[in-house]
Amino acid sequence: MNIFEEKKIKVADAVLALDLDGTLTNSKKQVTENTKKSIDKFIDAGGTVVLASGRPTFGVMPVAKILELDKKGGYILSYNGGCFLDCKNNEQLFMKELTHEYLPILEKQANEFGINLMTYNGDKAYALDIDEQYYMLEITINHFIRVKANPLTPQITFPIIKCLMTADGNYLAKVEKEMKKYWEGKLNIVRSEPYFLEVTEVGINKASTLTGMVKKLGKSVDNLICCGDGFNDLSMIKAAGIGVAMANAQEKVREAADYITKSNDEDGIVNVIEKLFEWEK
């Protein structure tokens, strides 16, 4: 008996939370036609979709449009849990801002560590170094306008939800340890990719926002199915009724999952949805 037969979550009751990069989208950052058809089938059968990403809302919107969540209904969890949006009426149901007073300290730390620091406002990505390779990767994925801000703090007069530190993965792993020590009890520090270190307010992660919002929507956390591949997906995979890791997921993510599906280049999400429908036959 597999986990789907054991849990017996009905499609109409299911909440499917999907990370984007490395999970819903393939290596070319595309949602395949096969995956889209499968998600359409899931929604048509009464299932609820949440796009749960570390990306800012602006960067998730194009994927939501492809899946027609503005018409069919669905939700966006963005900024690693800092924001939760109803796609159908464009209503922001939850937002947790990052304490502004922390920004000068974060900037000082970025300079001391010799790494890049960035944050967002709408379609703009403000950074200390706008030529750094990982910043360029972030703006390419999300189609942001580049804005150089060095020093950063004086230009950030708007509310912020998340900051992102970027550097080589091996070095950033060491930075992550130091940052977690310093900010314990104040900020949530987690890597979404080896080269992306996400910084949000304490208590903000995919799991905390997802479980809270699922309850507010009148759904059961037991019927929550969370799919992901990165370190920042660990919290929601552990909190889910069924936690799913992609075949291409980080080893720690695969170890924490109840089920390992195919890779993001093999339509792994289709496999999950098919498993849901199978036991109901």
TrEMBL record:
**Family annotation (Pfam families):** Hydrolase_3
User: What Gene Ontology molecular function terms does this protein carry?
Assistant: magnesium ion binding; phosphatase activity
Q: Which GO terms describe its cellular component?
A: cytosol
Gene3D superfamilies reported for this sequence = 3.30.1240.10, HAD superfamily/HAD-like
Question: Keyword annotations for this protein?
Answer: Hydrolase
Check the record and name the InterPro entries matching this protein. Cof, HAD-like_sf, HAD-SF_hydro_IIB, HAD_sf
Does the record's keyword annotation contain Transport? no
**UniProt superkingdom:** Bacteria
Which CDD domains does this chain map to? HAD_Pase
The cross-references to NCBIfam families, in alphabetical order and at most eight, read: Cof-subfamily, HAD-SF-IIB
Record protein name field: Cof-like hydrolase
Organism, scientific name: Lachnoanaerobaculum saburreum
